[in-house]
Structure prediction request, 162 residues.
Amino acid sequence: MKTIVLNTLEGDAVSEQIGTLIKGDEVEVLNTSDKRIAHCMGCNMCWLKTPGVCAIKDDYEGIIKKLVGAENLWLVSDTRFGFVDWHGKLVMDRIVPMLNMYIEFRDGSERHELRYHPLNFGLLYKGEADQEFLEEWSRRVASNLAGKPLGVIKMGEGEPYM
Prediction:
C-alpha cells in the first residue's frame, strides 16, 4: 500500500518523528518546504481545459503524479490559529486535479467525482490546535477523496500508524 507523506515542516527531528509515526512498506516522504509551490488560482483549467493537469507549472507537478499512484496521503503541518498553517493549506488546495468538476452524492453529501481513485487521508500536526476540529476536517478531506480517515496525530504524542 503506497503512502505519500507531504511534509511542510523543516528539520531532521521532524523527519525522524515522521519515520516513527508512519510505518509501511512503501512510504515516501516528500519535503515541500524547499519546493516552489504556488497558490491555487481557482482557474479550473485542471477541470475544463487540461483535465487532471494543473495550469501552474511548478514543483507540485511531480507531487500530483505521485499522488495518482498512492493509496494513502498524510499531511504534516504546523498549526496557526488552531488549524493547519498556510503551508499545509497550500499543498492541500493544489490537490484539485485529483477530482473533476462533476458532482455526485457520496456519504450523504454532494462531493466532486474522483478523477482517479480513492485516497485515504491523515494528518500529523505540530503546535496548538483543537484535536476534535482537526479530526472532523480530516474526515471531511477523506470523504472528499472517497477514502478513509487515517487519523490525526499531534507530533510527539501519538502512536505509530500501521
Observations:
- The chain has five helices and eight strands.
- The CA atoms of residues 103 and 113 lie 6 Å apart.
- The chain has one domain: 2-154.
- Residues 2-154 form a domain with the Rossmann fold fold (CATH 3.40.50.360).
